[in-house]
Write a structure and sequence with these properties.
The chain has 19 helices and eight strands. By secondary structure, it is an alpha/beta fold. It has a four-stranded parallel beta sheet, with helices on both faces. The mean pLDDT is 97.
């Protein structure tokens, strides 16, 4: 590993606490990923990135900042990356997926707050995540009450833009989101010092669309009964895509897809024939939250799809870049992003339709619907999801967890029983 200590020190990070985090991560990576057999060779790229996740990409971002580029830290798939890219800005994900950061969040947030929110706040306040230190501005959104109030805390010492996501999907809501995107573009112009043009926005739409297409190729390979990649490896690819340069991300995802398609032709599978196929849905799984996938795939099943923000929602649906005015392109962006079936919407039949559709497409034998503790949005939707899946004859297991390992035994018992039921 390269020596990034000076970089971390210059970022004002708590080096002692950060060392404790760095000591845990390599073991987790080894246990979850490197113990797997017959992995695609192209995964070496993501293995390298995750092994130096707080070094390689942060160093790149700092070098770009020296050239005058601005880094936008985002928390949600509703933030239109295309606007930032068109203005020569850089997008990096910020959500926290580690129990390590939760105590720092609990110092200023109620304990009955979603661990993803607590971890995100703790990562910033604890000064142990370089991405939170590097970002010139944070971009939040109103997808849940906990995040909305947490942004007030995060915005105390970092410039914060809040995008107001509509809570329904009527035509007037799509129009409202178009106006919100236009307002965001103006603010991003002020931050970057650049002016948005139709040409630059079209180019950025194409860049992000190509990234989406490349990720979809990897996911499409998982539809094969000859399963060429594990759910753990695909999740890692998806998680890193929130941080990576979009052009490089597309290139590496296409390279992986090439290998997966060749594996399918040659009958190379990462699981034995008859292994039960699981679709996972629920609260997003931010890096390094790999607990659920790891338990499922070491309990005799394989994860073949994720209907969540760290899954199909991130890359499904392309933006129509054919309009010749900024207003027309803003509307195209709004129409695409409003197709995300987040649990923040009411009513939200689209998510259930997506789960059923994806379960069929990916030939899932069962669905595991897992929400993070205190995530009321996804927890409340469990009832409707379960009833709809049972009506379709698709077995479903509803779970709740957090970032701690204390419930791993209980989760494994329930998941193994679910897999045994599928096998019977």
């Amino acid at each position: 590993m390269a020596d990034y200590v000076k970089m971390w020190k210059d970022l004002g990070m708590d080096l002692e606490s950060h060392d404790n985090l760095c000591q845990v991560l390599p073991t987790a990576v080894g246990d979850v990923f490197l113990t797997q057999e017959n992995r695609p060779k192209a995964m070496e790229f993501w293995d390298l990135v995750i092994s130096e996740v707080h070094g390689i990409r942060p160093a790149e971002l700092i070098e770009e900042q020296k050239k005058g580029r601005k880094v936008f830290g985002t928390f949600c798939v509703f933030v239109p990356d295309e606007i930032i890219v068109a203005l020569n800005g850089i997008v990096t994900g910020l959500c926290g997926g580690s129990q390590f950061w939760v105590p720092g969040g609990e110092a200023v947030l109620p304990k009955n707050t979603c661990p993803l929110i607590k971890a995100s706040v703790g990562a910033r306040l604890g000064r142990t995540c370089p991405f939170f230190r590097i970002a010139d501005v944070y971009v939040g959104e109103t997808t849940c009450d906990g995040k909305k109030k947490a942004y007030e805390i995060l915005g105390e010492d970092v410039p914060m833009i809040i995008m107001d996501v509509p809570q329904m999907k009527r035509q007037k809501d799509i129009e409202k989101w178009k106006d919100e995107i236009a307002d965001f573009a103006k603010k991003a112009e002020e931050i970057t010092g650049n002016t948005l043009s139709v040409e630059k926005l079209k180019e950025a739409i194409n860049i992000i669309n190509e990234k989406r297409k490349a990720m979809k190729r990897v996911y499409d390979a998982r539809k094969s009964l000859t399963l060429p990649i594990s759910g753990r490896d695909t999740l890692l690819m998806t998680q890193i895509s929130f941080f990576d340069d979009p052009v490089r991300c597309a290139e590496m995802c296409n390279k992986l897809a090439d290998e997966l398609e060749e594996r399918i032709k040659n009958g190379v599978s990462v699981v034995k024939e008859g292994t039960k196929r699981i679709l996972v849905t629920g609260t997003p799984l931010a890096v390094p939250n790999w607990k659920l996938h790891n338990i499922i795939e070491t309990s005799g099943a394989a994860v073949v799809c994720e209907e969540m923000c760290t899954g199909t929602r991130y890359f499904e649906n392309l933006v129509d870049g054919s309009a010749d005015t900024l207003d027309g392109l803003f509307m195209a962006l709004s129409e695409r992003y409003m197709k995300n079936n987040c649990a923040c919407f009411t009513p939200n039949p689209g998510r259930i339709e997506d789960i059923i559709r994806l379960a069929r497409e990916y030939k899932a034998d069962g669905v595991i619907d897992c929400s993070l503790k205190f995530c009321g949005l996804y927890d409340i939707e469990k009832k409707n999801v379960s009833e709809a899946l049972k009506k379709e004859g698709i077995p479903v297991l509803s779970l709740e967890t957090d970032y701690e390992d204390s419930d791993s035994g209980q989760l494994r018992t329930r998941i193994e029983a679910f897999v045994e039921m599928l096998n019977s």
